[in-house]
Amino acid sequence: MSPALATLAGTLAVQTLATLVLTAPSVLAPAVAPTLGYGADRVGVFVGVAYLAAMLSGLGSGGWAARIGAVRLSQVAMASCALGALAVTLGQPAALLLAAVTVGIGYGMINPATSSLLARHAPANRRGLFFSIKQTGVPLGVAGAGLLMPLGFAALGWRPAMALAAAACVALALALRPLVAKLEPPAGAVAPRAGGAAATGSWLAGLATVLRDPALRRLSLASFSFAFTQLCFTTFLVSYLKLELGQSLATAAAILAGSQVVSTLSRIGWGHVADRWVGSGLLLGVLGVAMGLACAGLALLGESAGTGLAILAAVACAATIMGWNGVFFAELARQAGGKDMATLAGASQFITFAGSMSGPVAFAEIIRLGGSYGGAYLALAALPLVSGAVMLRASWPARRAARPRADQSAPRSP
User: Fold this and answer.
1) What is the per-residue pLDDT across 241-281, written as a single tens digit (0 to 9) for each?
2) Do 370 and 148 contact (CB within 8 A), yes or no?
3) 119/330 Cα distance (integer angstroms)
4) Which one, of 259, 309, 292, lies nearest residue 386 by Cα?
5) Which of 2, 152, 397, 414 is 20 to 30 A distant from 249 in Cα terms?
6) What's the distance, Cα to Cα, between the start and end of the chain in Å?
7) What is the pLDDT of residues 286-340, one digit of tens each?
8) Rounded to whole angstroms, how far apart are CA atoms 158 and 32?
């Protein structure tokens, strides 16, 4: 297997399994939480703590990737997720807090490590597709948790099911070992850049770089708004369809499950578009505007809207609101240039995950204060719409300016 395909297979497996472990408590919560003396809604605390830990671990992952290598960092991430899955099986408050922290730490390491590997080994003209395929691990992990954890719960019980998830993480960590020699540069072949984040070892150096650079700052703020919107869409879609649009719980849940399939296909499709026809920066702007319009369309569905219209609105949202991630990492790799990709991915991810954390909280507060789900989705639509317009404004002149330079350049040999 070529280094490019080995990188893609390894990073996709890591992303999928880590997402499954992070999602598993949410899937099991309705059946398991009451038996432990908790309300099912308390899983929101677990997810929030996990994302906070992921934000912080991602900041330090660039330095660790420089020291031990991105493949070994992926192994560490899998080990941390395994520890967290085992801690969940104890069911005690302190153990669940430990589980949230350790799963979050592992999850936060993944994008810096895998982005560094893909930036090095993915073909430059197929980078958007490779990053997008890797990012399909998120909906695949969510779907895997939704399918496998209930089956494991019914057949074995929830504790053995989580223990098997931990064992899978350990197995994957061991399976990655041969990739160290295949994908990592020889020791000492890459010297740290003076003044770089990896050289200073500062967790904040990468974040400072992102905030100082206008293009990286704009890109990261767009990812904040897109992640904000994405988590609100997935978290509250079932409640909106059931409580305000009158769909049955089974139908609403099926629509959410179907959206995961659509998001998987759309991530691959948008990656191909970014490679072949539209630059990743410009495409992110188009997607931002499109997700704002799709979100507004979802919000404006009335009680008279049938199931068909609800499905169409959800598909439009899934294709845009959940389809941007791979294109984002491809654009980040392009903007990074010669900078340390692992450090920049961790720093940008800090801002992205801040949107993932704050979005559901803000949306829920609107509902708590008496707002409707439809009204909250309509207000939400403005955020990606504005971010998309900003990305379009920044990317379109650059695209036009690059065209004359390309026309004047000497023809390349085939």
Assistant:
1) 888 898 887 888 888 888 888 999 999 999 999 998 888 99
2) no
3) 8
4) 292
5) 152
6) 25
7) 999 999 999 999 999 988 888 999 999 999 999 999 999 889 988 998 888 767 7
8) 8
Counted domains in the chain: 2
Q: Which helix (H) or strand (E) holds 102?
A: helix 93-121
Based on the domain organization, do 139 and 218 belong to the same domain? no
Kindly state whether residues 168 and 209 are assigned to the same domain. no
* CA 102 – CA 104 distance, rounded (Å): 5
Strands (E), 19-62: none
- The span from the CA of 246 to the CA of 305, in Å, is 9
Whether residue 187 is contained in a domain is answered as: no
Whether residue 166 is found in the same domain as residue 208: no
- What are the pLDDT digits (tens) for 41-99? 677 788 888 999 999 999 888 888 888 999 999 999 999 999 999 999 999 999 999 99
**Of 284, 285, 294, the residue nearest 233 (C-alpha):** 294
Give pLDDT, residue 242.
86
**Does some domain include residue 149?**
yes
User: Look-up: residue for tokens 């991602």?
Assistant: 58
What SS3 class is residue 303? Answer: coil
Position 412 in a domain: no
Rounded-to-integer distance, Cα 120 and Cα 147, Å: 34
Query: Is 207 found in the same domain as 146?
Result: no
> Distance (Å, rounded) from C-alpha 115 to C-alpha 268?
16
Average pLDDT, the chain: 87
Residue from 262, 227, 218, 200 nearest 111 by CA? 227
**Residues 112, 244 share a domain:** no
What is the domain extent for residue 153? 1-176
Q: 362, 376 in Cβ contact below 8 A?
A: no
405: confidence class by pLDDT, cuts 50, 70, 90? very low
CA 47 to the chain's CA centroid: 14
Q: Within 13 Å of residue 346, how many CA atoms lie on the same side as its CB?
A: 36
Structural Rg of the chain based on CA atoms:
21
Place of tokens 């990012």: 135
Cα separation, 50 vs 209, in Å, equals 25
Tell me how many degrees the CA angle 171-352-371 measures, rounded to the nearest 5. 115
Contact in structure between 4 and 122 (CB atoms under 8 Å): yes
Note whether residue 185 is domain-resident. Answer: no
What is the C-alpha to C-alpha distance for residues 128 and 357, in angstroms, rounded to an integer?
Answer: 26
The whole-number pLDDT of residue 413 equals 36
- Residue 160 in this model has a pLDDT that exceeds 50: yes
